[in-house]
Amino acid sequence: MTKAYLALENRFRRLNILADIGAMLHWDMATMMPDGAAESRSEQLATLDVMSNELIKDAALADLLAEAEGETLTDWQRANLHEMKREWVHGNAVPGDLVEAISRASTACEVAWRSARAENDFAALLPKLQTVLDLSIEAGTAKAEALGCSVYDALLDQYDPSMRCARIDGLFADLEAFLPDFTASVIERQKAEPAALQPQGPFPIATQNAIGLDLMKAVGFDFDHGRLDISHHPFCGGTADDVRLTTRYNEADFTSAIMGVMHETGHAMYERGLPEAWRMQPVGKARGMSLHESQSLLIEMQASRSQEFLTYAAPLFKSAFNGDGPAWEAENLYRLYTRVEPGLIRVDADEVTYPSHVILRYRLERALIEGNMKLADLPGAWNDMMQSLLGITPPNDGNGCLQDIHWPSGAWGYFPTYTMGAMAAAQLFATVRQAVPDVMENLANGNFAPLMTWLRAHVHGKGSSATTDDILTAATGAPLQTTAFISHLQTRYGG
Prior knowledge:
Strand content: under 5%
Strand order of the largest sheet: 1-3-2
Largest sheet: 3 strands, mixed
Number of domains: 2
CATH architecture of the largest domain: Orthogonal Bundle
Distance between the termini: 62 Å
């Protein structure tokens, strides 16, 4: 008999549906919603969050979870029960009024962030951001008590289950020991090589969009179950059956938007590849944001910035924009896409300097969460750390501490997953190249099918049936580590 377990499945299906509704409202807020609707949207999202919190706190749920433990379950059902318990612990730790307050505050702050960034006005955002930070610390404190860990670890656990600062510190220390000298050597080597030529625009947004759609099709994106739009900050949202991708365009430079599309398509393919039979259950969700980011970075960085793929893409770009001359050749585009140069904007950063952007954010948000820095001091601390890590200083806050949506939207503890995702991406791609010897040849023909087939089998189809380390170990032979990522950087950039 699995009476209790089946009752749990029904309850968590309802919770998943509410989350899906919230995801679509968030997508609309980022793409279509007029600013004047912010207050009503805040009300809508807060109501959904409160309803979900009430469902997870139903007194009967604890009894059902305990009863289901004694029932005879399949491996997937057992894994699903484990994920149900995890969601139950997180959900029960935070009072309903705090859930509502966080939802309202983060919605208001996210909308305010749009104008604050455009106007380079951190002071205007500070009161709303302070509220979001204070409420996030309060929620993190409650979760820390339930999980038996630090406040920051509790917030991190929301995005990367079971990941802790001690593990991140070790991984990041490996990178910090390697990157400074390596980065300097790459920059010096590239100076001695032919300079990458920037194709000259303008590049109409409609044409950029059309190319993006064509490349999404090449990767295998199903437009019957998703779409591409424009937002202030590129993201992949929506639901597994209705994946909503966004990018942003620059008419003077098409290269960033195109890779932004490939990045978000990697996220989308993960969502679409999750086990369909478990789509409405916790075990059917993606296994944390480190693995999620690995899928986007694998498509964007590992595959789409390779010489092989750019051999395929270069003629498409040249034809679409009526380009002419050496700037449009595959060799030049490869130099352009692999140029290492410290820059201000994280989403535009090259592979070599990108980890420094993440380490900066990780250190700053930890300091804020742990009470070692005041939020009002963030712009100055950001600028100082960027100068220390990357040798550059933002000219304004829009290109500095206001450039990311994560903190205004309440996503404290998210940032480390980007670089852990880069490590996992390199680890997985190195394995794919051994397991599927013709994968690069296929990419040179615009054929992502062999790559996606392997990822579906070894990552996407696993859902949350195992830990991140267990999924990686089964796929690559090792848990998350820096070895493959460092090797990849040395091979691609070391000369």
